[in-house]
Amino acid sequence: MKKRNALKQSFIKFSTIKKLHKWLSLLVFIQLFIWLSTGLFFNLMDHEKARGNQNKKAITFQKVEHDRLVNLELIMSKSSKPVTEIALIQRLGKPYYLLTHEEGLYSHFKSDYSLVDAYAGEKLIIDDGVASKLAQASYKGKGGVSGIVKVKPPITDMLKERNIAWQVNFSDALNTSVYIDASSGRLIGHSNDDKRFVDLFFMLHFMDYPFLGQGSVGGFNNGQIIFFALLTFVFCLTGFIWVIELLRKGRYKFS
Amino acid sequence: MSLHRKSRKYHKWLMLFVGLQLLTWSVTGTYMVLMDIDYIHGDTLVAKNKQRLTPEQVGYSFSELMNDHNKASNVKLGLLLNQTVYRFNDGDQKVLLSALDGQQLSPINEQLATSIAKDNYINTKTTVINVQLITVNPPRELSSRHLPAWRIDFDDFASPSFYISANSGQLVTKRHSYWRIFDWMFAFHVMDYIDEEADNKLLLVFTVLAFIASIFGLVLTYFRLMPQQKKRNSKVDNDLNKEVVDEKA
């Protein structure tokens, strides 16, 4: 009996660690299992399907007839906004000048562009008709266009996108949606049911819930995950100390 | 053996093998969620100083460029410091031309690369401590598709480095100590220390074992913390402690 008391006393701190570990397990176990199972999913999933590009094809480019290109002064006179960059690009097999008025560090950051026909010098507005053609030019599936909607960020399929876009929906087995930037006509990307399924797992792994705090942002810097990460860190640390303690006391024995 | 005893045994043994990785996941995960991702990307280090283009600055037209370089694609007219320039792809190669006379400016020299880096850096007073041209074997933090590139190191908090493409004269990559730590954190999180891909076998084995170990842990949580189990717990505890005392004696 005496011996047991001595043992207990010398490990007072250790007993606190054990208690912490037990009670923390109750707080974090649900999230821990979500992290482990979604992690396992990311490990095993089909990384090709996860991209949502099953029905995407490369856009073809035509040769530019350089002697038909309208001159710069004319293009710039068409724009009331300041221009920081001009690119010679193609949309639907025709050359256009893409005028940058405002540009973020990355293409998904807030930007403002306008398009001018590089042969005729006329402005091109990306309306639903143009957006639909642009989407179809990037689509190799068998479905037809079933709907076109203008969407504002946050866009559920493209959470990081901060620009207004046209969502062109196709009636195929995967429910493909194609997103076109409303000011530049740039193809933002494709999404479909396979990608949406994977996005659900990212939402769970990152605790990026639409009904909490700032809503879904496609990232992992939110209050709830920081809270659970810190708790889980203490939980794992106390568990790890426990293992070390068991090793030290020679409790790992084959028998 | 009871489910309680069995769970205790398997939890103990499995955690001997996967406990360190669980701790690693929690440490690396905590680091990644605590660090603001835009800061990690170095976005806050970049100055926003876009100047506007005027037609007078252009003496060489798009049409002349397309005539002289008929394989040119992705042609852009923009600014490089105070100069108007064209940037385009000639096959795999990026090319930089003066928009005044169409003269080729790429590849750029050390002095110009340094000026571009300083112009893009948020703090104009920061001094450059090292400049290096990288043409082969890029460091871990630079993608090989950006080669050749100039690395410009600044004497500032968290040792920032800007990478300027030698052929386009553009800022292609920005790094600092917290990005470098983050990169290793991610590698340890997905257990792929070279390519940082999440679909490797090592991660699979550890995730499955950690999952099983955690299930046994959950069984223990039930037996340890459910009120009606308290009595039985003390019995298991006594038995175990008796074993220990017996062993020590």
Automatic annotation (TrEMBL), chain A:
The chain crosses the membrane at residues 23-45, 225-247. Keywords: Membrane, Transmembrane, Transmembrane helix. This is PepSY domain-containing protein.
From TrEMBL, chain B:
Keywords: Membrane, Transmembrane, Transmembrane helix. It comes from the Bacteria. This is PepSY domain-containing protein. The keyword Transmembrane helix applies. The lineage of its organism: Bacteria, Pseudomonadati, Pseudomonadota, Gammaproteobacteria, Alteromonadales. The chain crosses the membrane at residues 202-225. It comes from Colwellia demingiae.
